Amino acid sequence: MTRRSTLLWIALITFCAGQTAVAQTQVDPNLPKYKPQQGISGTISSMGSDTMNNLMALWAKRFNDFYPNVKIEIEGKGSSTAPAALTEGRATFGPMSRPMTKAEIDKFEKRHQYKPTQLGTSIDMLAVYVHNNNPILGLSFEDLDGIFSSTRKSGSADLRTWGQVGLGGNLAKERISLYGRSASSGTYGYFKEKALFKGDYRDSVQEQPGSAAVIQAVANDPVGIGYSGVGFKNPGVRTVPISKDGGPFIAPTLENVSKYPLTRFLLIGVNYNGKQLDPLQREFIKFIYSQEGQAEVVKDGYLPLSAVQAKRQLSLVKITFEDY
């Protein structure tokens, strides 16, 4: 990650922490309402994050209500597929659950002579999931490192059974089954950086093809544990409260968004030369930051942006609320 990307990420999360409006499920009424424009047609292609795949589909469906003749193609095979697709012109948008790395930015810039633009579209909390019958009260970052990592850079013990993290009864001697994402996933990279202290995953982590697959695997395994976006929760699993640096256990709930330690922005990459967006590209971006677009964020189980946050993101591509 470049210093610029790191600073942007920190600024976004810091700003998130100060916004009480974000912790509500209501869309900010100060966001503009979307108004369709004349003469908009063509094809939009999206390649990237599986975490954002359903959100992109919801946006596409609602956008098609305004523009039935616009064709929208969506492919979600992991965040690391987005930069190359943007660089090579194979995608209009590159949704990602992490910022681009320095190497990804450099490849794009070498080809286009300017840097790619990533816009924060919504807020996710990366949750740790266990089977719905698992009574674990909470896990620390050190526990997660000891469970998922082979390197245990936090100094954690080698944690392989549920008894080693405090469970008694029938689960105490049971080995923990591990589920996660593939290396192409931004969620894989984010969890590795934060919860594994940039260490390595165990070979025993069973990589799943998508976020929903992780949740389903845990729901089917009474001794399983996995990680995925909070928007993928289903009745077969429960989220585990997490603690960091010896602090209290914090659950990934709307009320806790400002203090939950695995909060992140969901991003969308765009090839923007700093001058002008393609009309179709521009309208889709405007739609994302409208009341209608952010309503789809809520529908998918993520947190919408405030009007202030939306303005800041739109300013990166020279769009203002007055353009609606």
UniProtKB/TrEMBL annotation:
Task: Name the domain of life.
Answer: Bacteria
The processes (GO biological process) annotated in the record are: phosphate ion transport
> In what residue span(s) does the PBP domain sit?
38-292
Sorted alphabetically, which keywords does the UniProt record give? Phosphate transport, Signal, Transport
Can the keyword Signal be found in this entry's annotation?
yes
Q: Which family does it belong to?
A: Belongs to the PstS family.
Please give the name of this protein.
Phosphate-binding protein
| UniProt lineage | Bacteria, Pseudomonadati, Planctomycetota, Planctomycetia, Pirellulales
